[in-house]
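Regression test case RT-17, inverse folding.

Input:
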């Protein structure tokens, strides 16, 4: 098992494993609720949508797949040219960000499927991504020993795409998360 995530209401647990399966378990008794078979490579990350209705999985097969809570695939994306290393829903559930070994982050609009994804570049493999609670900014952590923060949207929703700052570390940054205040970013390195 390479990835694990609780559903927002705590009733389900999703895992992704080295053989490409995404499994969903009932948290109360750990019985199986669903097992998927859509990925052909290891599943590197799983993330629930804020409403708990959907689960995203990112795999070394270059695919990002979206499942419902019963394990049925409802969508998939193949735009990045590398293994999908991390997935994250925006807090309002309207966007899905995916990081890749091809040094990119794609932010897809889940409400308007015709909208082109926002593409952000990193200096090395992307290991983790996190939205601020208001979904206006995103942090990208990775093998470049840093965390890049991007201001994505203005207060009126206009796309800005401005790289705000870079935090430097001595090692690969494997995890990052904003605290609920939206002003404090926590990072963890190897």
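Golden output:
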């Amino acid at each position: 098992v390479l990835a694990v995530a609780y559903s927002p209401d705590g009733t389900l647990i999703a895992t992704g494993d080295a053989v490409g399966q995404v499994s969903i378990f009932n948290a109360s008794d750990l019985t199986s609720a669903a097992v998927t078979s859509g990925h052909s490579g290891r599943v590197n990350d799983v993330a629930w949508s804020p409403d708990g209705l959907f689960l995203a999985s990112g795999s070394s097969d270059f695919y990002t797949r979206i499942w419902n809570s019963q394990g049925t695939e409802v969508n998939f994306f193949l735009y990045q040219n590398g293994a999908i290393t991390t997935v994250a829903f925006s807090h309002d559930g309207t966007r899905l960000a995916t990081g890749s070994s091809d040094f990119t982050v794609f932010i897809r609009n889940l409400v308007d499927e015709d909208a082109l994804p926002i593409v952000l570049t990193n200096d090395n493999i992307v290991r983790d991504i996190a939205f601020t609670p208001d979904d206006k900014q995103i942090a990208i952590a990775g093998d470049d020993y840093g965390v890049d923060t991007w201001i994505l949207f203005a207060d009126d929703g206009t796309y800005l795409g401005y790289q705000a700052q870079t935090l430097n570390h001595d090692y690969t940054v494997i995890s990052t998360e904003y605290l609920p205040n939206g002003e404090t970013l926590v990072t963890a390195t190897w």
